[in-house]
Amino acid sequence: MSEAPGGAGEGSFNPYSRACPSRRFLKFLGDLWTVLVIGALYEAGSPQRFTEISLRVDGISTKMLTNTLRALERDGLVLRHQYAEMPPRVTYELSPMGQDLANVLRDVEGWATGHMQDVLDARESYDVAHGE
Amino acid sequence: MSEAPGGAGEGSFNPYSRACPSRRFLKFLGDLWTVLVIGALYEAGSPQRFTEISLRVDGISTKMLTNTLRALERDGLVLRHQYAEMPPRVTYELSPMGQDLANVLRDVEGWATGHMQDVLDARESYDVAHGE
DNA sequence: CTGTATCCAGGGGGATACTG
DNA sequence: CAGTATCCCCCTGGATACAG
User: Fold this and answer.
1) Residue ranges of the HTH hxlR-type domain (chains A, B) (predicted)?
2) Nearest chain A CA: its distance from B61 CA (Å)
């Protein structure tokens, strides 16, 4: 019952090894746009259109929104619905697995905003102690 | 009681706004090296030396390990201890706030490794359906 | 051992223009 | 509206050499 640094058992994935696919995946999950897009879809609670998402995620470019949504869809985290209308209408929503992930990422987001002030203070102390 | 996309109340931080400092912080927290270094320190359970950390986090360069540790220390998430010895000895450990964060990030890591296979399968299905 | 300093290639990602 | 296609700059981050 020896454990790798990641605590993964045998036959599992371990992001602490550079060759493991979970490392790249973890990197993707941590990507700012990934986190915010998933969070936006989660917050919305209903299928969102391309433009709606871009409005919720301030500053995201069409390129990155496209890339992010495409990757999320490919990974089975987001469901894409296309309607044969004119003008075209496309919506995105979290898959069950995506919603599960959203809950995890939401904790990270909550932790970040919840401790932001502490961190800001810590930085100030550090900068003062280390000569700006 | 209106809510921003991030669900943050007034006076709080909201990473969905590009100007909010929490966005940059969230980006830092999601960074691969940040996640793995914190995870490594958490797993270790005791203060770790520079070299020990680099061994746990496969593939990290001295530059990035230094940068990451420095940033974590500045943010009050990691405590650095320096001993006046020869050869020099320095150890790092999570601060109480850092340990709190570690628990959150650990869930993300666990989610990633726990769903890696599902994602791998989803990708294969997607690629087949969309012509490789 | 624990970093720091520099160089530099590669890729991420913004801005912009254009299409079905 | 929902993207796609390019250009292209910048900045990340690896490699390397060196210092305390």
Assistant:
1) 20-120
2) 12
The backbone torsions φ and ψ at residue B91, rounded to the nearest 5 degrees and listed phi first, read -125, 155
Residue of B nearest to A56 (CA): B5
CA dihedral A25, A30, A35, A37 (to 10 degrees): -50
Residue ranges and CATH numbers for the domains of chain B are: 1-27 (no CATH), 31-129 (1.10.10.10)
pLDDT in tens, B19-50: 999 999 999 999 999 999 999 999 999 999 99
The sign of the dihedral angle between the CA atoms of B54, B60, B65, B68 is negative
Global model pTM greater than 0.90: yes
pLDDT in tens, B107-119: 999 999 999 999 9
How many CB atoms are located within 10 Å of the residue A75 CB?
24
Give the chain A residue nearest B127 (alpha carbons). Answer: A74
Neighbours of B123 (CB within 10 A): 15
